[in-house]
Write a sequence for this structure.
């Protein structure tokens, strides 16, 4: 996510994904040992040796012609995992969500109802309107990522083909919910939503970028969650550790329409088996270990509260998966400054801790800080991040 960096007066200035500058003291000769704990996102994971070997050995063909055997196998496994008829390999989660909207809403001027804090609504450039001509109608997200179904029902348009209004076609949910801190949607909520959608002949799409985190947290098979949905997008490039890709699952006819939408969006890849091989390994080998990320996030959350005079506050009951959202509660210390202090490496820190520890986080929505655990952040890394937190707390006091 680092866009550019320049050295100025011995200090590294880095431009982050959100456009904010961060400063890090760093010895010019590189003699100071520094360990970086990157908690910005689970998208920063890198493929390990086994995944790289699988990619190098992948059997490939032309996927646009449906002839790449590795892609076909990935899609077959995904459909089986989701409990759906078919699946499609897509370059990114943003494209996958857009394809889902285009495939459910077949005419311009139709409408999707979704949460006001959903990734699809906030972080995907309004692609549903920009590219698909589909209107978004939002409802208020609850702290756990759900929304009030009575409010949803009140937003459903009636009287089609009345020329004044769009036609409601689709309801979108997000699981786990990114902005709300990796919250897992309760199965009871999804069951009620399914009943509402059926009453009005609407489809339900799940942005399941971190669906596997939700399944691990609930100790259920992914298909148990997805039985209440018509389609799902599942990212391979987050906690599952693949370098690229997302899987879009749904009924066979839906996926056939999705193939057309993928093509017009430029997502038709050729010898994509090289990437699909990483996806197969991710699905088969990387799901079980997500519980380690959840445990490490909880460990750090507890440490936030255990300092003698904690700078930050967090509700432990909301830490359900690998995403941690917490607030800086100290007057005069902004989330940006807290993140800058956690990243900066100072001589005093090296003397106190025996090494430099650079912890990367983001200031997040509503004055919070977000930290995300993943396969490249070990239990040892988490302990180092806690030591850095305690050092910063002590120095600030």
């Amino acid at each position: 996510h680092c866009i550019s960096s320049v050295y100025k007066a011995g200090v590294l200035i880095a431009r982050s994904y959100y456009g904010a500058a961060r400063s890090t003291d760093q010895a010019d000769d590189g003699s100071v040992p520094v360990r970086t704990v990157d908690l910005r996102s689970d998208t920063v994971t890198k493929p390990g040796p086994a995944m790289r070997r699988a990619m190098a050995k992948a059997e490939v063909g032309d996927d646009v012609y449906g002839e790449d055997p590795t892609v076909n196998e990935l899609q077959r496994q995904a459909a089986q995992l989701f409990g759906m008829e078919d699946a499609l390999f897509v370059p990114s989660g943003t494209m996958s969500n857009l394809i889902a909207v285009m495939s459910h809403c077949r005419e311009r001027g139709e409408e999707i109802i979704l949460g006001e804090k959903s990734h699809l609504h906030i972080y995907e450039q309004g692609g549903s309107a920009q590219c698909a001509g589909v209107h978004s109608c939002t409802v208020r997200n609850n702290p756990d990522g759900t929304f009030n179904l009575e409010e949803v029902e009140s937003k459903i348009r009636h009287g089609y083909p009345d020329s004044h209004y769009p036609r409601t076609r689709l309801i979108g949910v997000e699981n786990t919910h990114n902005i709300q801190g990796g919250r897992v949607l309760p199965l009871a909520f999804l069951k009620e939503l399914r009943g509402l959608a059926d009453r009005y002949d609407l489809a339900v799409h799940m942005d399941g970028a971190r669906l596997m985190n939700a399944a691990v947290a609930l100790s259920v098979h992914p298909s148990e969650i997805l039985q209440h949905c018509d389609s799902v997008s599942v990212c391979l490039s987050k906690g599952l550790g693949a370098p690229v890709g997302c899987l879009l699952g749904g009924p066979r006819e839906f996926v056939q329409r999705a193939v057309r939408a993928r093509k017009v969006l430029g997502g038709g890849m050729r010898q994509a088996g090289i990437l699909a091989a990483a996806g197969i390994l991710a699905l088969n080998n990387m799901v079980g270990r997500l519980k380690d990320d959840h445990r490490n996030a909880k460990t750090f959350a507890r440490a936030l509260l255990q300092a003698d005079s904690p700078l930050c506050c967090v509700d432990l009951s909301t830490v359900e998966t690998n995403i941690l959202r917490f607030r800086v509660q100290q007057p005069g210390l902004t989330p940006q400054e807290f993140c800058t202090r956690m990243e900066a490496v100072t001589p005093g820190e090296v003397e106190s801790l025996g090494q430099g520890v650079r912890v990367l986080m983001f200031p997040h929505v509503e004055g919070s800080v977000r930290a995300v655990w993943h396969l490249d952040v070990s239990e040892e890394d988490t302990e180092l991040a806690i030591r850095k937190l305690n050092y910063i707390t002590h120095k600030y006091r």
